[in-house]
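Work through this:
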Amino acid sequence: MMAMLLAAGRGERMRPLTDHTPKPLLQAGGKPLIVWHIERLAHAGITDLVINYAHLGAQIENVLGDGSRYGVRIRYSPEHPSALETAGGIANALPLLGDEPFAVVNSDIYCDYDFAHLHEHVAALQTSGDTAHLVLINNPTHHPNGDFGLANGRVTASAIRNPQSAILTFSGIGIYQPILFGYIQRGTAAPLAPLLRAQIAMGKVSGEHYGGKWIDVGTPQRLEELDKQLRATQNTGHA
């Protein structure tokens, strides 16, 4: 299985930190945010990676290189002159991602989700006819209304409420069939949410609820808080 790390965002809410450093390279716990994901993906046996970039992207290539120091192989999908949004960025990288289902991870989150679980969900996606599998989390305080419903392993529209359905937030971790993005012209900006909602309406999206540590590192304050948490954990010998 291949994985794509989304790293093309400008990081406006992170300014001025992102004026000179791309958001995925901002550090927490002594290493860049994106490296936490790379190391966890490698530990899960997912070693063939694609990273897209736009803003200050050359820095990402310079720091990460070909990935060999992390035990992975990294290929890059540049987006010029500006980022193509999530679905557009994935569509632009399709020639590197192949014909099988692949994982996508937002590089501007921090979590301790075990990426090894993705293997079983990829296998299920290959036989179920579904086009996507989403990892959903409890609604954070800055996003209290959530994104989607989840009932019996199926993702539903958040407006559909029933006693068996929990309203949760998309974690930024998913698995997708390439065909989902095949109708987007390469180099065209396109958001992911409308694509997902259309597939959810057709009943083609599975999901899981992850209740572990997850942080949307979207502001300097959250980055600082995460850094303190990770350093405290490292100091106790449990990193």
Remarks:
- The chain has six helices and 13 strands.
- The first strand starts at residue 2 and ends at 6.
